Amino acid sequence: MLLPRYSIRTTLIATTCCAVFFLVLGQAMRERPWAIVISVAISSLLATLIVHAMLFLTTAAMTRLVGSRQQPAHTSRGGVQTTLDQTLPPPTDNSTSND
Hints:
Layout: H1 8-29, H2 33-66, E1 73-74, E2 80-81, E3 87-88
Antiparallel strand pairs: 1-2, 2-3
């Protein structure tokens, strides 16, 4: 499902919020200082959310193209678990040789 389920109440709330925003935006066009501040603040918030969504979608797309299918997870005992049923032994440390 692409869009979540919504009701008429949700649609009316969204319509009311948009109407109030455009009312404030209209007041900002008449150069009311309070309306300019509110319009810039809401527009900045919306722009930030859009940029974050675009970065998330870009990262998700790159992960699907480049990322591996198995993501290893480190266990509390130092092992590496690649699936729910398989636990690999902890890695050996070759730096402490007795030579």
